[in-house]
Amino acid sequence: MMQEEEKDPIQDQQEETPVTSEETAPEVVAEAAAEVAEEAAPEVVAETETVVEAAVEVAEEAPKKVRSTKAPVAEEPAAAEEEEEEDEVLPILETLTSSTAFDDFNWNMDKRGAILYSDAERAALLKSYDKALHQIEENQVIKGRVSSISGGDVVLDINYKSDGLIPVSEFRDTPNLAPGDDVEVFVESQEDSQGQLGLSRRKAKILRAWESIVDSFKNGTIIRGLVISKTKGGLIVDCNGLETFLPGSQIDIKPVLDYDQYVGKMMEFKVVKVNEQIKNAVVSHKALIESDLAEQREQILGSLEKGQVLEGIVKNITDFGAFLDLGGVDGLLYITDISWGRINHPSDVLSLNQRINVVVLDFDDQKKRISLGLKQLTPHPWEVLPSDVGEGSTVKGKVVNIEDYGAFVEIQPGVEGLIHVSEITWGNQTVHAKEFFKMGQEVEARVVSIDRADRKMSLSVKQLTSDPWSDIEARYPVGSRHDGVVKNITNYGIFVEFGDGVGGMVHISDLSWTKRYAHPSEFTKPGSPLEVVVLNIDNEKRQISLGHKQIQENPWDAFDNVFPVGSYHEATVLKRDDKGATFQMPQGIEAFSPAKHIRKEDGSLLEPGETVTVKVIEFNKDDRRLLVSHARYLEDLKYKAEAAVKAERAKEDGENQAAIADVQKKVEKETLGDLSILAQLREQLENK
User: Fold this and answer.
1) Residue 438 CA to its chain's centroid (Å)
2) Which pTM value belongs to this model?
3) d(CA 593, CA 634)
4) E strand or H helix at 116, and its extent?
5) For 485-498, what is each residue's pLDDT tens digit?
6) Helix or strand or coil: residue 81?
């Protein structure tokens, strides 16, 4: 049908050109194809070899098919078969006639002699040609070869029917790009509005970068990236064109304070987190280091043995020890295993990044813990202690520890002795080691006992001097006075020490003749000088009884005449409690008044600081006790006032004026001259 409407150029050529014989048809086609191949571009030669082979095969069958086209159509099945063959050959012919690689080939073959191809043969040739081209799809990454670079564009041949153009700006990462280089590109569209192939180098890089990031996240592979900038909390890393985030905590296994030192560096990472929706990822350099350290750790742990000596680097120092890096695995060196001697802190011996040799004391495969020792590399000091250090010898050392029961003195590193509190002074009173020693103090002591097997030593300071108790009675006879220093205060007394370390106790009752103290601290304080008198000496118990009030005579011997029972005295309230009040009496003596004896006329109680008249109701010289009463004084006043009233009434009744005068004198005498009371009584009588 097509031949009737449009005249086939091949058929026109057939009419003008003699038909090639059946025997020469294949050679003619092959020769023509070879000539076309020679004239084609070098890039197309390899691609057309397949087409030539297909054309030769078709040409061998061409004479038969040509004859069949000239013969009349006898049966419909034959016609259908011919149409089917046309469908197979037509694409091949169309490809050969329309391809730019064969533009110079003269398909009319007016001078070369050509045969006529049917539509089926053309379709078969086009089909073979299409097979020689790559099948591409949009949104995929393919490889292309740079054909040329001109006009700010890169021409890429992707083995497709048309080439692609990509701006040179997308190849900034490859400044030495040249024709013939292979690059990966992303197919945006097979044909845009202008009929051109749409490619993108940038999208191909991003897609490949994301694929490598996802692979690193899923499989733990390593990726490389360039640290391009610093941001809040970390760094921004360019991983093959895709920006990722590196947190500050994932930069290194050690804390990093200066982020700027990493900007511009190319580093290796592992992806620890991805977000598929926004195509974002978090990377870690620390994870890469830890994985390497884990492998080294397994190797080291597999070869560890107790007693093995290793070299380590001090990476951290704490109060309880130091952590050492043994080359991929950490070990702990406790403070007690650093030195045979006492140290206050590991930093006294070790410093950061110091390289030392240590011995493996113990390790736990499951918990990955390794205990190390440093002092174990040297012999124990007790094993090399000089033989001249024995009982009775004098040694020098430094105080390294002070407890309530004594002080520890280090004779040499690792060898210590205890000075018990009982060996500090010859006195029998309780002492505290902190009062005699200070940390780091150099002291001299005598060895009391030594046990090299148990590594124990007892020392004494007091034995460096003679025992003062051997002649204590001669130096401190009973009744003698001495100046001492208050060393300690208890609830029941004061310990006073003399210059030679000997001392005694002053009981609270021997502090004052006239004043009672609730606690000795009301009288003095530690460190204050105090004059005392020796009251008694117990040589066997090594105790001396001292007194302070005995320095003066006992005033109570004369107080019985000053404060007789029934006498009245002016007194000041010193203090008051639920039991009563204490009064300050004349001559410095104190008196006590029970609670019922301190009420005033209005019924209220006396307050501290008030000065009133009191009546002595009890005096005991032996117990040094004086009791007074203000209430009794008020009762006496009332009695005397009543007597005065009786005297006034007797006067009114005409009694003897002399008798009235005697009563008045007697009242005035007994009330100590308090005439105001008599005036009040007279006023009351007149009012009546």
Assistant:
1) 34
2) 0.41
3) 14
4) none
5) 998 889 989 998 88
6) helix
- The pLDDT of residue 611 is above 80: yes
Q: Which residue has the higher pLDDT, 461 or 426?
A: 461
On the question of a common fold for 381-464 and 468-551, the answer reads yes
What is residue 265's predicted lDDT score, i.e. its pLDDT? 92
Closest C-alpha to 241, from 215, 276, 272, 203: 203
Find, among 19, 86, 95, 30, the residue nearest to 57 by Cα.
30
How many other CB atoms are found less than 10 A from the CB of residue 473?
13
Contact indicator for 105, 36 with CB cutoff of 8 Å: yes
Q: How far is 28 from 115, CA to CA, in rounded Å?
A: 9
- The candidate with the shortest Cα–Cα distance to 479, out of 532, 537, 533, is 533
Backbone φ/ψ region at 474: left (φ over 0), alpha (ψ -120 to 50), beta: alpha
CA distance 56 to 205: 43
Most trustworthy range by pLDDT among 7-16, 453-462, 464-473, 600-609: 453-462
Mean pLDDT confidence for 192-202? 72
563-616+625-688: what fold?
Answer: OB fold (Dihydrolipoamide Acetyltransferase, E2P) (2.40.50)
Check residues 686 and 240 and name the one with the higher pLDDT.
Answer: 240
* pLDDT at residue 461, as a whole number: 93
Residues 6+ apart with CB under 8 A from 278: none
The CATH number of 381-464, from 1.10.340.30, 2.30.250.10, 2.40.50.140, 2.60.40.3880, is 2.40.50.140
